[in-house]
Design brief:
Layout: E1 29-35, E2 45-53, H1 57-68, E3 76-77, E4 86-94, E5 109-117, E6 126-135, H2 140-156, E7 158-159, H3 173-183, E8 185-186, E9 189-190, H4 194-225, H5 228-234, H6 240-248, E10 260-263, E11 269-271, H7 275-283, E12 287-293, H8 303-313, E13 326-329, E14 331-332, E15 335-342, E16 347-355, H9 360-368
Parallel strand pairs: 1-4
Antiparallel strand pairs: 1-6, 2-4, 2-5, 3-4, 6-16, 7-14, 8-9, 10-11, 10-12, 12-13, 15-16
Helix pairs in contact: 2-9, 3-4, 4-8
């Protein structure tokens, strides 16, 4: 098998890898989509809640298209779901096709509920996703370690990295995205596939985001562990006052003056100008740090925070005009957490809810401290 080239970001926690078996199947990995709003019960769009096993969202849409006669362009959805596991999500389609679902039957997909709404579902029209994950072959000693790691993440939050799904089977999507920005080619050939091009360029942006966030995790860890003199040698582009402030912060994820913050769990971006005041709001989970998705329209950081970004994004600035750009929450929090250990079966189960755009596999890797598919 070809070796992956995906960048491996730093973990925030520092424990040793924990032994547990994980398989992304329909019994051990369950995802349930949480809608952004209640459906009105009135309108021309049928809202179909489906559950599916080992099918992509695209697979499910093709099945619904064949059964109802609706065109692929007629469907709407809030987010793409992984192929592996059991997933539930909401699909919208014109209401006139409702009668064609009366006797729907499929071995890998079920219709859980029907509703109607005035609007077609669009990407991003979801609050988040709830997850159930079962780990197997867990010894009592490792169950205790899993509990400690899960509780720690629940308390402190987690680095909101992009997951492996973004980067392709061999981890080469980001490099191909950079090639597109440089030359307009994929493997040396011109590409006119706009959707594919956008996806590959977004993988490049996501890779840079992960590298920047990994650097911020590194800075946060090193600020705890190294002296001011040592930090000055490691980060010569940060002055003494900034380094002193980093060391003074008690929270794990250190804030930097001039960085872009955002109201959490949703809201506008703004600059961090009063570190003490914003630190209190950060600790209360009212705001969080927002990492750069490189592009022309992204909200720009200033000062020391900009200096950190420039260490990662300097190359991307050459192609900024070719990318829109935005900001993404860098530090996020679990919600609705629960865990349970069944010693007789050697099963450890965890439940949690994530904001849209966050990856359960990223959280699981932070807990286990290893590649979950090795």
């Amino acid at each position: 098998m070809q070796e992956t080239t995906t960048f491996k970001p730093l973990y925030a926690l520092t424990h040793a890898p924990i032994e547990a078996y994980f398989s992304k199947n329909s019994d051990d990995f369950v995802v349930r989509e949480i809608p952004l709003y209640e459906f009105s019960g009135d309108g021309e769009h049928l809202i179909v809640e489906i559950s599916k096993k080992d099918m992509t969202t695209s697979d499910a849409l093709h099945v619904l298209s064949e059964v109802t006669g609706a065109k692929m362009r007629d469907f709407g959805y809030a987010g793409l779901k992984d192929k592996q596991g059991m997933t539930t999500q909401f699909i919208s389609m014109p209401r006139r096709f409702e009668s064609n679902l009366a006797n729907f039957s499929h071995e890998k997909m079920k219709i859980l509920s029907l509703n109607v709404h005035k609007n077609k579902l669009r990407i991003g029209h979801l609050k988040g996703n709830s997850f159930f994950i079962r780990l197997k072959k867990v010894l009592p000693s490792n169950a205790k370690k899993l509990e400690q790691a899960f509780v720690s993440i629940d308390k402190m939050g987690y680095a909101n990295y992009f997951g492996y799904q973004r980067f392709g089977k061999f981890g080469d999507n980001a490099a191909t995205g950079l090639e597109l920005l440089k030359n307009g080619t994929i493997n040396g050939k011109k590409s006119k596939n706009v959707k594919l091009n956008d996806f590959l360029i977004s993988a490049y942006q996501s890779d840079l985001f992960n590298r920047w966030l990994s650097k911020r995790v590194e800075i946060s860890r090193f600020a705890q562990d190294f002296s001011l003199g040592e930090l000055g040698q490691i980060y010569p582009y940060l002055d003494g006052a900034i380094l002193k402030n980093l060391k003074s912060q008690k929270r794990f994820f250190k804030l930097i003056e001039g960085e872009v913050l955002g109201h959490y769990p949703h809201g506008k971006c703004f600059l961090c100008e009063d570190l003490d005041a914003e630190g209190v709001r950060f600790d209360a989970r009212d705001i969080t740090s927002c990492g750069l998705i490189a592009g022309a329209k992204a909200y720009e950081a200033q000062g020391a925070a900009r200096a950190v970004e420039d260490q990662i994004f300097a190359q991307a600035n050459e192609y900024k005009a070719k990318m829109t750009g935005s900001r993404r929450f860098a530090w996020c929090y679990l919600e609705d957490t629960n865990y349970k250990y069944n010693e007789e079966k050697a099963h450890f189960t965890i439940k949690f809810t994530l904001q849209k755009g966050s990856y359960a596999t990223v959280v699981l890797e932070e807990i286990l401290h290893k590649n979950i598919f090795e």
